[in-house]
Design a protein that fits this description.
InterPro entries: Crypto/Photolyase_FAD-like_sf, Crypto/Photolyase_N_sf, Cryptochr/Photolyase_FAD-bd, Cryptochrome/DNA_photolyase_1, DNA_photolyase_N, Rossmann-like_a/b/a_fold. It is globular and about 90 Å long. Helices cover 40% and strands 6% of the residues. It contains 23 helices and 9 strands. The protein is an alpha/beta fold and 627 residues long. The strands form 3 sheets. The protein has a 5-stranded parallel sheet with strand order 3-2-1-4-5, with helices on both faces. A two-stranded antiparallel sheet has the order 6-7. Strands 8-9 form a two-stranded parallel sheet. It binds a DNA duplex (15 and 15 nucleotides) through helix 7, helix 11, helix 14 and helix 20.
DNA sequence: ACATAGGTTGCTAGG
DNA sequence: ACCTAGCAACCTATG
């Protein structure tokens, strides 16, 4: 009898790190004869998930740093990057390389689980043993869900109670001090290039996409991809990714906090300008480099929210990142709703595009995205987001509230799309969860607490230094007006050398011109709060029949709602919303947007929260009326 | 059943 | 600089 020593493929995915990796430890505990550290480029992420150059650069940084760290431990090894979908690649590797084990860190999102099942089934068929561990979160999200009665964790109390039942958070595992040699890596099989026709990133590519041109890259050495290979222009972010850098930053922050006596105090006053040198770096450190357990000491509360979102995602599955079919998110008839993939009736997953039910709301959305809303604090944040791929999480609160329930009344899925594209620290579970939180569709519901684009920033930055940095048009404006330039006197504007005009969308950054504010914030705030109140009274959720079959519209109309999908803005009545050429006829019907006060929908079966997951009385009502 | 307290991180006016 | 009450009134957790 011959004893076969383990030959292990370690499959790196989002866990681009060596420290505190239970899965990597499990792989090394096998005492393998050979270990292949590999990364596979998955077309799902390349073509179906929007990402900016900054995001790609950050991920490539993480991969390159990991590869360097592996090579330091064993000069024969590195991160071998293979350009093919894992679902088609692994069955061929199992035959060609003859591994005994495949090891990886589990994910909680629906796509990854589906993909991993395909790969795991292929492994089983090929006689390869699969070992997985959790490792991205404080507790195993699936365990948390189990201890929470199989239900998603929709509050911090639930998460803490469930986490307590799961047990102690394990101590961080040190990085390994050796790695076995990689085995032979014959590529004696056909390379399947991408089959997809969809490419959500096409508009952002400036070069020809060569991502899948060859299985081992242009030099045939399985090196980390470059932005050029991916077809993206150079990144603008000053933030670099990678475990080595992130750990060094963590060490510095902890040392600083000790010196300043902040060690036990979770929160300093937010500073929107500081980034990599303060506690806010935690979010992008978490993305793929620094294990959460190492951050626990001084970022404890933030991490609990993250675990809450991951466990919610683990329980809810694919509808977690959307409204439709999601029993746990409130239905609110926001503008610019997602288009759903008609062909894919099984999951009803969002297809990435949206309906322009209101040209006005669409313009507000495009101005928000471009950082030309005419609200300087909003614009500063959105411009920093685009350039750096990072903004302070309180800044994220403000711009998210402004786009959804506290200004534009645009669907939170639009905002989540933009953050997904631009944030280098983007994680789907946290992104969707936070957008649901801020828009009061799940996790949080106090919609009358509404962030002001003027007052919120002033609390910490009276002089508007943050605005001056990112909105240079207003650099010399008196601090009295910097948050609300529409109030500035002509002489103050003249002194600052700025004119307030246009919508900021067409000109290519004309110097000395800053756009007119999109709307009167107080007015929009009141309209939105009133609309939220009526939507809460109607009480629909993402899986209610009335939402799926469109009957919701009649319910909202009966309640006298006008601030909703499809019911406004089909004329160009808004006085700020003209295209600049026909300003004179802009004031007709200017009162059209005002909500009639009065009847609210409260009488319509206020579905209690506990009925959200079942068929409520509303559903019977709807079915009856539908025939 | 019902009441009460609490909830990452709201804003404003007033002391 | 820092606190409080009032605003209008959401949901969850607990006893």
């Amino acid at each position: 009898m011959t004893i076969v020593k383990p030959r292990v493929i370690y499959w790196f995915r989002t866990d681009l790190r060596l420290h505190d990796s239970p899965a990597l430890k499990a792989a090394l505990d096998l005492e393998p004869e050979v270990l292949w550290p590999i990364f596979t480029w998955d077309p799902h992420y390349v073509y179906h998930v929007k990402a900016s150059s900054n995001r790609w650069q950050y991920i490539l940084d993480c991969q390159q740093d990991l590869s360097d760290s592996i090579q330091k431990l064993n000069p024969k090894s590195k991160l071998f990057v293979i350009r093919e979908a894992p679902q088609t690649l692994f069955p061929k590797l199992f035959t060609a390389w003859k591994p005994t084990h495949l090891v990886f860190e589990r994910d909680t999102d629906a796509y990854a689980r589906e993909r991993d099942k395909v790969v795991t089934d292929a492994a089983t068929k090929a006689g390869v043993k699969v070992i997985t561990r959790y490792g991205r979160t404080l507790w195993d999200s699936d365990e948390v869900v189990r201890k929470n009665g199989g239900k998603p964790t929709m509050s911090i109390t639930q998460l803490q109670a469930a986490g307590h039942k799961v047990g102690e958070i394990p101590k961080p595992i040190p990085a390994p001090d050796y790695l076995p040699d990689p085995g032979e890596m014959p590529i004696n099989f056909d390379h399947i290039q991408r089959a997809e026709t969809v490419d959500l990133n096409a508009p952002h590519r400036s070069l020809v996409d060569k991502t899948y041109k060859s299985i081992a890259g242009p030099k045939g050495d399985s090196a980390v991809e470059t932005l050029e290979e991916l077809g993206f222009p150079a990144a603008t972010t000053p933030h670099r990714g990678g475990e080595t850098l992130a750990l060094a930053q963590l060490e510095k922050v902890m040392a600083d906090e000790k010196v300043r006596g902040y060690f036990s105090k979770a929160q300093d006053k937010p500073s929107f300008n500081r980034t990599s040198d303060d506690s806010s770096f935690a979010s992008h450190a978490l993305r793929c480099s620094v294990p959460s357990t190492l951050l626990l000491a001084n970022h404890g509360s933030q991490l609990l929210f993250r675990d809450m979102y991951f466990a919610a995602q683990a329980a809810i599955g694919s509808p977690y990142t959307q409204t439709l079919n999601n029993p746990y998110v409130r239905f609110i008839p926001w503008h610019l709703p997602s288009k759903y993939d008609e062909a894919d009736t099984g999951t009803m997953a969002i297809s990435g595009s949206y309906q322009v039910d209101s040209p006005q709301a669409d313009k507000w959305f495009r101005r928000w995205k471009a950082g030309v809303t005419g609200f300087p604090f909003v614009d500063a944040l959105m411009r920093q987001l685009r350039f750096e791929g990072w903004i302070h999480h309180l800044g994220r609160h403000l711009v998210a509230c402004f786009l959804t329930r506290g200004g534009c009344y645009v669907h939170w899925e639009r905002g989540a799309d933009v953050f997904e594209e631009l944030l280098i620290d983007h994680e789907p579970a946290s992104n969707a969860g936070n957008w649901q939180w801020l828009s009061c569709t799940a996790f949080f519901s106090q919609y009358y607490r509404c962030y002001s684009p003027v007052a919120f920033g002033q609390k910490w930055d009276k002089n508007g230094d943050f605005i001056r940095k990112w909105v240079p048009e207003l650099k010399h404006l008196d601090a009295k007006y910097i948050y609300e330039p529409w109030k500035a006197t002509q002489s103050a504007l003249d002194d600052a050398g700025v004119r307030i005009e246009g919508d900021g969308l067409d000109e290519g950054g004309t110097e000395g011109i800053y756009p007119v504010a999109m709307f009167d914030f107080q007015e929009r705030r009141n309209i939105c709060i009133a609309a939220m109140k009526r939507a809460f009274a109607i009480g629909l959720h993402g899986n209610d029949e009335a939402v799926k079959n469109g009957y919701w519209k009649q319910l909202f109309e009966k309640a006298g709602e006008t601030e909703m999908e499809g019911l406004d803005g089909m004329d160009s009545s808004d006085d700020n919303d003209d295209e600049g050429e026909h300003a004179d006829d802009a004031d007709h019907e200017s009162h059209r947007n005002h909500n009639p006060k009065g009847r609210n929908g409260g009488k319509h079966s206020r579905s209690k929260s506990s009925t959200a997951v079942q068929e409520g009385p509303m559903d019977r009502h709807v079915k009856k009326l539908k025939t």
